[in-house]
Amino acid sequence: GQSLEQPSEVTAVEGAIVQINCTYQTSGFYGLSWYQQHDGGAPTFLSYNALDGLEETGRFSSFLSRSDSYGYLLLQELQMKDSASYFCAVRDHRAGTALIFGKGTTLSVSS
Amino acid sequence: DTGVSQNPRHKITKRGQNVTFRCDPISEHNRLYWYRQTLGQGPEFLTYFQNEAQLEKSRLLSDRFSAERPKGSFSTLEIQRTEQGDSAMYLCATSRSGEETQYFGPGTRLLVL
User: Cα–Cα distance between A38 and A51 in angstroms, integer?
Assistant: First the structure.
């Protein structure tokens, strides 16, 4: 089957750096995506890694190691507004491009 | 606002009633997905359309659920004979062929009493 594991909660203070890890089991791996979801809001796309290495987009970076079936999302210079749930996701190989999501990591940023 | 709209935003119904939700995608997006999300969980895939063709349905999708995308634009998701276990947020997402990014609508929150 396909599954993803990520920590359920992470806490940090403003200005800090936090890393959210994700390990996955899947057949037919295409890439690892990350989505952010604020309370009561819709998931919004953050990043996608198809190849090994680090992708940087502003304060957020995402890393993938295909050989280790592992990736992480790195959030730098944390702000209060970064408090949200973060989901890693892989394609469901049985359903074209539909995504299978992890259970999410709730990030709480305090001042 | 991603440009994907869903209506209604909230729905309260009694067990056994039928409900229908609508999703209007970003106009040039030919792929449309329905997901369901319950508290503390990630979105779970329900069904997927490419243009008007329903290409995949999850095993989660019981016979009481049906979805359509008649002209390859908006889509509807109907739940017949609702049960309390159907209470969840129903999310629609759309994307372009060849692109990984899925754009989610704000969701319809269903409460079955």
Answer: 28
